[in-house]
C-alpha cells in the first residue's frame, strides 16, 4: 500500500521494479549515502573509517556486531549525550525493540531517515498478530459486558484505568440497536468461528506479521477470520526494514520477501550445517559460517543470517534471523524466514531453537484436540539448579485437560526434541525428564503487564519463547501461577 498521498500505488510498484532491476548499484549508492551522512559518527571513526565510503574500506574497518556491542553508545544517548555517537547528527530518539536483554526492553537508535524507510513500506497497525488473537480471546470472555456498555452508553466498572474511562466516555453513547445486533451475531457463532467477518462484514483480509514467533497463533487466527484470507506483512524489525511481501495471496507459511535494496545495506552470512545435522526439520544452531556476501551474491536454496547497515546508526549489525533464498525478483533476492538464530534451550551439549520448541509444542498440541482444547500460549526455560538439569515447558490452556492427556503431552514434548545432543543426553540421563507446567488463565496477560511496567509498548510485545534463568521476575510470575506439573516418562524413570 502506498503511504504518501502524492504517490499512486502504480508509481510505487514502478519505482520498486526500477530499484530491483539494478539492486547491486542501488546497494552501493545506499551504503555510500549512509556513510556520507554519518561520517562524523564516533562509532565509525573509532574503528578508523575516517570518512571513507567505499565498500572495501567499510568491510575492512567495521566489524560485525550485535546489540551488546552498541549498548555503551545507546546508554550514552539515553543519558542525554548530544554528540554524534552512532550517526552524523545527534540522536534524540530511541525505539523499543520487541526483543529483550535479560527481561528488559531493548533500546535501538531511531532517526528521521529510518522513519522515512519505515513509512515507505508499512502502515500503522498492530504489527504482531498475537495481539489480535488475544483481543478476540478477551472478546469471548467479555462480549456480554461489551453489549451492555453499548446498550446503556456507560462503561463497565471493570475498566478501572481513569484515562481509558475518560476517553471512552467522550464517544460512548447509548445504542440499543447496535448492542442487539452484536449480541445476535455473537450468539449465532459456532465456537466463535468467523467472528471477524461477522462483526466487520466489509473486511477483506486480515493483515499482520505471521511468521517466526507469530506462527503458533495462525490456527486460532484462521478460526476467528473464517473465510477471510490471512496476508503476511512485510519483513522488518525495530532495527530496520528488510523486504516486502510481493506475493500477498500466498498463505503465511509460504510467504517470501523481496529485499528492498534502498532501505539499508545488506550482507548475508552463509550458514552450513554439518552433514550429521542435515535433518529436514532441524533448527539446530550448529552452523558453519563463511564470510558475508552481498545482496546480489546469494545463492538460491542456501541459508543465511541477515546483516544490516541502516541510516539509523547500525553498522554490520547481525539481526539473528535465519533466512533461505528461494528465488530472485529481478536482481534482488526473495527470502523465506526460517527462524531466529538465538539459542533457546540448552543444558549441556543439547541445542534447540525457537523453531524446535514450536515444532515440539505443535506435535504435543495434537493430543489436546481430542478434548477440544487449545494452547492459549506457551513459553519455556531450563532448570539447572537440579542435577541433572531439565527442560521446563509452560502452557496456558483454554480449559482443563485430563491428567492422562497431560501426561501424554509431557512425553510427546520430550520425544519431539530430536536434536542429537538432547536425545543422547536424555538416554544417558545427563538431562532429566522434561517437565510440563500448566498455568492459570491470564498468566501471559500478567507477563504482558510486567513488560509494560518496564516501559515497553503493547504493540511491540511478543510472548518470550524462552525465559532466561536470570529473568527472575517473569519466572516468579510463571512459578506462582503454575497449577499442575507433569514429568515425562518417555525415556524411563
How does this model look, in words?
Residues 355-468 form the GH3 C-terminal domain. Residues 257-340 form the GH3 middle domain. Keywords: Ligase. It is a single chain. The chain is of the alpha+beta class. It folds into three domains: 1-122 and 236-340, no CATH class; 129-225, no CATH class; 343-487. Helix content is 35%, strand content 22%. It contains 16 helices and 19 strands. The chain has helices at residues 9-21, 23-37, 42-46, 55-61, 67-78, 112-121, 129-152, 162-171, 176-187, 195-199, 218-225, 354-365, 403-416, 420-427, 443-453, 472-480, and strands at 93-101, 104-110, 206-208, 230-232, 235-237, 240-244, 257-259, 265-272, 288-289, 293-294, 303-309, 317-329, 332-340, 343-345, 352-353, 375-383, 390-397, 435-439, 482-487. The strands form five sheets. Strands 5, 6, 7, 8, 9, 10, 11, 12 and 13 form a nine-stranded antiparallel beta sheet that branches. Helix 7 (129-152) packs across helix 9 (176-187), helix 7 (129-152) runs parallel beside helix 11 and helix 12 runs antiparallel to helix 13 (403-416). The radius of gyration is 24 Å and the shape is globular. The termini are far apart. Residues 1-6, 98-103, 119-129 and 276-284 have low confidence and may be disordered.
**Beta strand %:** 15-25%
Structural class by helix and strand composition: alpha+beta
* Helix share, percent: 25-40%
Are there runs of 5+ residues with pLDDT below 50, and where? 1-6, 98-103, 119-129, 276-284
Report on the biggest sheet. Answer: 9 strands, antiparallel
Radius of gyration: 24 Å
What is the distance, rounded to the nearest whole angstrom, between the alpha carbons of the first and last residues? 57 Å
Kindly report the average pLDDT value: 84
Task: Supply the number of structural domains.
Answer: 3
Number of β-strand runs: 19
* Continuous helix count: 16
How would you describe the shape? globular
Amino acid at each position: 500500500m502506498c503511504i504518501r498521498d502524492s504517490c499512486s500505488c502504480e508509481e510505487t510498484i514502478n519505482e520498486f521494479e526500477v530499484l530491483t532491476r539494478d539492486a547491486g548499484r542501488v546497494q552501493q549508492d545506499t551504503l555510500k549515502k549512509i556513510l556520507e551522512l554519518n561520517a562524523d559518527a564516533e562509532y565509525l571513526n573509532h574503528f578508523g573509517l575516517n570518512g571513507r565510503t567505499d565498500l572495501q574500506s567499510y568491510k575492512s574497518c567495521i566489524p560485525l556486531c550485535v546489540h551488546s556491542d552498541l549498548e555503551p553508545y545507546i546508554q550514552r544517548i539515553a543519558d542525554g549525550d548530544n554528540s554524534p555517537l552512532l550517526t552524523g547528527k545527534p540522536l534524540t530518539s530511541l525505539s523499543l525493540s520487541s526483543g529483550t536483554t535479560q527481561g528488559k526492553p531493548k533500546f535501538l537508535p531511531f532517526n528521521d531517515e529510518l522513519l522515512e524507510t519505515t513509512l515507505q513500506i508499512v502502515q500503522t497497525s498492530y504489527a504482531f498478530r498475537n495481539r489480535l488473537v488475544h483481543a478476540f480471546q478477551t472478546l469471548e470472555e467479555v462480549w456480554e459486558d461489551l453489549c451492555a456498555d453499548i446498550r446503556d452508553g456507560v462503561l463497565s466498572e471493570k475498566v478501572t484505568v481513569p484515562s481509558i474511562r475518560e476517553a471512552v466516555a467522550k464517544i460512548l453513547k447509548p445504542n440499543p440497536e447496535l448492542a442487539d445486533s452484536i449480541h445476535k451475531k455473537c450468539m449465532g457463532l459456532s465456537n466463535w468461528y468467523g467472528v471477524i467477518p461477522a462483526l466487520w462484514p466489509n473486511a477483506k483480509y486480515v493483515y499482520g506479521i505471521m511468521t517466526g514467533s507469530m506462527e503458533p497463533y495462525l490456527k486460532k487466527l484462521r478460526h476467528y477470520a473464517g473465510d477471510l484470507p490471512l496476508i503476511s506483512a512485510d519483513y522488518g524489525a525495530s532495527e530496520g526494514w528488510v523486504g516486502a511481501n510481493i506475493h500477498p495471496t500466498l498463505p503465511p507459511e509460504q510467504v517470501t520477501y523481496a529485499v528492498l535494496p534502498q532501505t539499508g545495506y545488506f550482507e548475508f552470512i552463509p550458514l552450513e550445517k554439518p552433514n550429521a545435522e542435515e535433518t529436514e526439520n532441524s533448527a539446530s544452531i550448529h552452523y558453519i559460517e563463511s564470510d558475508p556476501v552481498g545482496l546480489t551474491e546469494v545463492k538460491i536454496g542456501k541459508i543465511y543470517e541477515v546483516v544490516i547497515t541502516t541510516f539509523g546508526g547500525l553498522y554490520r549489525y547481525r539481526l539473528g534471523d535465519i533466512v533461505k533464498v528461494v528465488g530472485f525478483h529481478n536482481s534482488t533476492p526473495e527470502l523465506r524466514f526460517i527462524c531466529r538464530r538465538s539459542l533457546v534451550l540448552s543444558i549441556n551439549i543439547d541445542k534447540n531453537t525457537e523453531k524446535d520448541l514450536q515444532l515440539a509444542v505443535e506435535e504435543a498440541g495434537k493430543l489436546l484436540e481430542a478434548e477440544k482444547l487449545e494452547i492459549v500460549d506457551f513459553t519455556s526455560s531450563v532448570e539447572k539448579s537440579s542435577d541433572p538439569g531439565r527442560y521446563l515447558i509452560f502452557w496456558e490452556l483454554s480449559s482443563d485437560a485430563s491428567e492422562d492427556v497431560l501426561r501424554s503431552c509431557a512425553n510427546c514434548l520430550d520425544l519431539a526434541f530430536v536434536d542429537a545432543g538432547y536425545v543422547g543426553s536424555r538416554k544417558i540421563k545427563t538431562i532429566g525428564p522434561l517437565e510440563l507446567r500448566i498455568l492459570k488463565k491470564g498468566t501471559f496477560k500478567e507477563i504482558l503487564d510486567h513488560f509494560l511496567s518496564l516501559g515497553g509498548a503493547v504493540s511491540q510485545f511478543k510472548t518470550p519463547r524462552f525465559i532466561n534463568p536470570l529473568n527472575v521476575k517473569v519466572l516468579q510470575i510463571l512459578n506462582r501461577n503454575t497449577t499442575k506439573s507433569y514429568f515425562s516418562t518417555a525415556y524411563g524413570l
